[in-house]
Amino acid sequence: MSTIGYSAAVGAICPTLPKSWFKSMRVLVAYDRAFNRGFGESGVVALADSLASAGHEVDIFSTTADAAQPPSNDERLPRPLPREHTLPLLRAHVKAARPAVIHLLHWQADLSPSVYRVAREFKLPLVQNALDFQLHCLQGGLFRNGRHCEDCLGHSRLKGVARACDGGSVRSSAMLAARLGYHELIGDFSRTATLYLAPTYYARGKLIEGGLPRDRVIVRAPYADIPLPRDGDRANGLYVGPLNDESGFLTLMQAALDLADMKIDVVGEGDDLALAEQIPAFHVVTPMADAPLAERMARSRFLVYPAPSYTGFADTIINAFGARLPVVASATSGIDELVEDGQTGLLFEPGNAVDLARKIRWANAHPENMLEMGRNARNVYQERFSSIRGARQMIDAYELACQLVHGPLLGTARAATATFK
Question: In 186-299, which residue ranges form alpha helices assigned H by DSSP?
Answer without folding.
Answer: 201-209, 249-256, 273-276, 293-298
